[in-house]
Design the sequence.
């Protein structure tokens, strides 16, 4: 559920800003807001220091088994910064030398100093590049040496005495360094770059200390920004504002007397941008992994859809993947990853277990195991015959659409029950079921109940009369103009759930096709080995495509179709209490 918030103003003596800020940060309950984003030299200095530390810490590998260097974190950052600068300079030199190598390599190795010495005595050696199709005419007295010929170009040298005649070809300026020297210098720089990589890796055991220093730098920047952003009530009183969960307000009240604060606690105003904090029970936390993955959050005054999102996302995942064998692979991979990557939050793996098991159940009911057409009797008996008919699956998709979208409108009715707009939501509920029967009639040729025409008409009347409050008609009249398009959109939303059938069927078709093509090759051991390899690749690609389908379609049906019928805009900003980011190094 979305946690209720209180708007809190903390007042303190202007001379006690720092102590007040440190105490507030220790409490870690106040999400700070500022009327303005101030710029100050303290903020710039803290930002530069953070960038300095971040650049150094970003290149250090995390090697917990490696011993620490014994240097202080600041000394390590200084050394790493010098290595970063040296690596950057080496990289630039390497790029320049490789370009020069590419330019003169067609002419082979020679001494530029010797060429310059001959030029002082009137013997000119010049380098050229020309097209093989339009080779230039050369003076009779000139000496010509071709060094390389390709389909696209001819590279050659021309030697003349006492003059430099015009030659209709691209002249390549003689290098300042010989080819051998350039290659030697490139080798030295590459070795230097490898040495820098080794030196950086030697600080792998210091990663926790560097992370601590980086956290301290982030804390310092945040402290500077908050200190500068505090407002002044009078010459002696400073204050800052923020939002605190209602359940944590008592902690502020208890801390106020000891720190000499004044507190003003109010309900958030309608125009306040209030952060969203969702506190779900443990069994609902898995869906937070999806919210975090795609970066969505309901607004503070919107509805928390965690329950319905989890239920329908699991169903959509199962139908889109649709294969019990794939589900078993997902479950095995999840159990392995949970033991391997213990730092990942447990609710992420719980979500993967739920979706994997849902996929296995759906695959068992539909009799789908790696796209195998003829199932063994023990598996075939578990299949639900009704789900073996494609028309039934399509019909099920439309039922899911109607139920899913109806939940959205029933929820809106409950939310608006004390207002006339609840009747408009009743109208939209009527429209959804009219569109449901229309979709079944158009796609499946099922009979259309004549009573639904009257239901549809009644729904439109309710929508037109109650969709907009009378006092808002002057500003929101355009909603009535858009109503025909919204009605069409409602039909499209219902139809769009057919993607659950389409994507799931496509996944089965791909798996089945490859099985049919490759199974006959298992007659011989060599062809069987090749067939097994191709089957592995084919099913791997199919699994990837199925997961992409989940990301595109399974999430979309919740975040767009369902959310739009619920009026959910995902406008939330996360609740981020001001707290220390750095932690003591173990």
Sequence:
């Amino acid at each position: 559920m979305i946690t209720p918030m209180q708007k809190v103003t903390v007042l303190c003596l202007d001379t006690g800003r720092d102590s007040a800020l440190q105490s507030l940060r220790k409490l870690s309950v106040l999400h700070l807001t500022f009327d303005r984003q101030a710029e100050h030299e303290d903020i710039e200095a803290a930002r530069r220091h953070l960038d300095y530390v971040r650049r150094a810490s970003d290149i250090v590998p995390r090697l917990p088994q490696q011993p620490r260097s014994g240097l202080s974190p600041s000394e390590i950052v200084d050394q790493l910064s010098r290595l970063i600068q040296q690596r950057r300079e080496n990289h630039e030199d390497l790029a320049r030398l490789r370009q020069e190598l590419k330019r003169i390599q067609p002419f082979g190795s020679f001494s530029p100093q010797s060429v310059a010495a001959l030029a002082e005595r009137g013997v000119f050696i010049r380098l050229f590049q020309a097209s093989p199709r339009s080779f230039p005419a050369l003076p009779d007295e000139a000496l010509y040496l071709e060094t390389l010929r390709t389909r696209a170009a001819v590279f050659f040298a021309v030697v003349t005495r006492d003059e430099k005649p015009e030659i209709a070809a691209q002249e390549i300026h003689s290098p300042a360094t010989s080819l051998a020297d350039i290659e030697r210098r490139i080798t030295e720089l590459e070795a230097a770059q490898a040495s820098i990589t080794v030196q950086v890796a030697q600080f792998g055991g210091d990663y926790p200390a560097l992370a601590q220093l980086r956290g301290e730098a982030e804390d310092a920047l945040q402290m500077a920004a908050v200190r500068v952003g505090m407002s002044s009530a009078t010459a002696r009183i400073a204050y800052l504002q923020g939002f605190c969960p209602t359940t944590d307000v008592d902690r502020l009240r208890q801390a106020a007397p000891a720190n000499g604060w004044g507190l003003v606690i109010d309900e958030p105003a309608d125009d306040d941008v209030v952060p969203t904090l969702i506190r779900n029970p443990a069994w609902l936390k898995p869906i937070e992994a999806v919210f975090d993955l795609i970066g969505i959050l309901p607004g503070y005054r919107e509805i928390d859809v965690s329950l319905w999102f989890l239920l329908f996302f699991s169903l959509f995942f199962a139908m889109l993947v649709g294969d019990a064998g794939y589900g078993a692979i997902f479950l095995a991979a999840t159990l392995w990853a949970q033991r391997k990557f213990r730092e990942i939050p447990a609710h992420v793996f719980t979500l993967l277990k739920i979706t994997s098991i849902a996929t296995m159940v759906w695959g068992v009911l539909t009799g789908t195991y790696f796209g195998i057409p003829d199932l063994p009797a023990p598996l075939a008996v578990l299949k639900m015959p009704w789900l073996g008919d494609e028309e039934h699956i399509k019909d099920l998709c439309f039922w899911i659409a109607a139920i899913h979208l109806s939940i959205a409108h029933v929820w809106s009715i409950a939310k608006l029950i004390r207002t006339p707009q609840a009747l408009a939501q009743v109208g939209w509920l009527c429209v959804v079921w009219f569109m449901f029967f229309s979709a079944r009639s158009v796609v499946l040729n099922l009979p259309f109940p004549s009573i639904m025409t009257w239901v549809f008409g009644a729904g439109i009347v309710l929508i037109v009369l109650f969709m907009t409050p009378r006092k808002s008609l002057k500003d929101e009249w355009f909603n009535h103009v858009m109503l025909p398009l919204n009605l069409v959109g409602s039909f499209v939303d219902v139809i769009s759930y057919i993607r659950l059938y389409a994507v799931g069927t496509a996944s089965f078709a791909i798996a089945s096709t490859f099985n049919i093509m490759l199974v006959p090759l298992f007659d011989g051991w060599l062809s069987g080995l090749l067939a097994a390899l191709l089957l592995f690749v084919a099913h791997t690609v199919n699994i990837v495509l199925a997961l992409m389908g989940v990301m595109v379609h399974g999430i979309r049906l919740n975040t767009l179709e369902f959310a739009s019928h619920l009026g959910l805009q995902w406008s939330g900003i996360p609740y981020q209490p001001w707290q220390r980011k750095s932690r003591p190094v173990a």
